[in-house]
Description:
Blueprint (H helix, E strand, L loop, with lengths): L4 E5 L4 H13 L3 E5 L4 H7 L7 E3 L5 E3 L1 H11 L10 H16 L1 H10 L2 H14 L5 H12 L13 H21 L10 H13 L3 H8 L2 H11 L12 H32 L5 E5 L2 E5 L3 H15 L5 H10 L7
Parallel strand pairs: 1-2
Antiparallel strand pairs: 1-3, 3-4, 5-6
The chain binds glutathione.
Amino acid sequence: MTDPYRIIGSEESPFSVKIRSYFRFKGLPHEWIERRDAQDLFSQHAKLPLIPLLIKPDGTSMQDSTPIIEAMEREAPEPSVYHADPALNFVAALIEEFGDEWGNKWMFHLRWHRTIDQVAVSKRFAETQGADDVEAAASQIRERMVPRVWFVGSNEVTGTQIEKSFKDTLTLLDAHLTEHDFVMGGRPTFADFGLWGQIYNAGRDPTGGAILEQHPTAARWVTTMLDPPSDTGKDLASWPDLEPTLLPLLADQIADMFLPWSVANAHAIEDGQETFDVMLKDHRWTQKPQKYHARSLTALREKFAAVADNADLNEILVACGADEALH
Ligand SMILES: N[C@@H](CCC(=O)N[C@@H](CS)C(=O)NCC(=O)O)C(=O)O
């Protein structure tokens, strides 16, 4: 008998639960192993100190959630997470990039910015890790994690913008998911998993959870995506059906916030800057540049280059204002 796929991850890790949700949707046999229970296995297979780590039945392993999903789609194409329409398939990839790279700021900021969250989350982490002295372990975790909010761009200048972006995204998603069960229509696609992982994790903490509760339709999608049905019996939607409620999300959050940030971050890396400033919707944003995001913008632009002559896609991107950033 073939061993199932093994996913080493953590409930606290948005990228890990993203992959677990994907495996559940695909109906692929897999074993979920909490990172704390897999020290040796992790060291044997991991090339980077990051979760999730996927170990395949043949003993090879992979890290990085987006390439993991792409590789698995080649191995097990059905049910597909791709949209058959190439224009909408790219839109889904853009939303996944937004979820992974921008949504992570919401999650990390909300988790470690306020005392109430720092206390609750560090205690939960310490308990999950099986610490003997939970209080002592929690305060060590807190001391280590709180200064790290800087790395995702959370600071005294950007904190309000990050929280507003989380709330605005949930408001837009709430309206969209009132019309559609999932981001692209009747079943999950690439657009759901990454965005979901960040919102799910933000929603497990006091402040993020209270905000999520105010958006009941989005909250219901969060619950569904924890274990998404493999066969919803419903189709994906076409652009005319998605446009009324999806275009506002693409315009307001992706074209006006995420992409200008991503482009400015990539320039800052290229120029070797220590910190960078960019105006996002008339508000100054400042942070240290993040290397990984510059690489993932390049990957997104490569995906765009493959469909750059698609007229429907260009119409969508011009309508939301995302066209320039992708060239
Ligand atoms: N781009 C990676 C990001 C993975 C990542 O940042 N993982 C975090 C947890 S969510 C991590 O492992 N951080 C180090 C740690 O927890 O020790 C992916 O998509 O898988």
